[in-house]
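Aim 2 progress. For ABC transporter permease, the working sequence is reproduced below.
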Amino acid sequence: MKNKNTIYKNLIVFTIILVIWEFVFRIKIFSPIYLPGPYMVLKSFLEMIADGSLIVNIYMSLFRIGLGFILAFITALGLSLGYFLNAKVFSYLDGILNFLKNIPPLGLVPLLILWLGIGEGTKITMVFMASFFPLFLNMKKGFLGFDKELVEMALSFSYNKMDIFKKVILPQSLPDIYTGIRISLGYAYRSIIAAEMIAASSGLGYLLNFSRQMSRTDKVLVSLIVIGFLGLFTDYLLAKLSKIVLKGDLRNET
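Predicted structure tokens for this construct:
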């Protein structure tokens, strides 16, 4: 029931935005060159679907996001497990990790272009850098923030370390890991659009920038709307998955 109410509320908001948009277009506050109407944007969307240009650019962006995110997830998991297994040794990395955490991924673009050129490596590295820290910090929090009393209880039942990790620590960590995944995917979408706008010949960011250069505001709006709905759909899938894996134990749910 809660989900249905949320969908209805979202539909009402989107409908209101469309009505206001159409009204502003019809009274011609702005030139159609700068603010095309919803129908013109829909027409451009259908044309870009028909000629395949939108599908290709969506695929390229999602491919880069997927690969960069997977690499970030594997690295974050390995490093957070290192902290869990031997926090004293891995604490030597705190300084460099805090240093890198404060460098915006977009600021690395000039250096990455010099090192890697404008190929796939630059875009995937951007996604990696944007995704890594939300994943790592939440995984670390989950693995190190376990309930010590439950661990002591498991030890009293002669559980070995692997059983304790699988049956006690990992289940407690899953909500934090889920939160990290959800946040990092949002950062991944933002970073890939920025990277593709600067150094790419394909992808939604490239399409957005190219449409701007051609003064095709309708295609700019198509790109922005598609980016927004892709992120919304990804978050929706994660929310559905969490209900299966976490059985409704969601943190930071919106």
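The two ends are 16 Å apart (CA to CA). This observation will guide construct design in the next reporting period.
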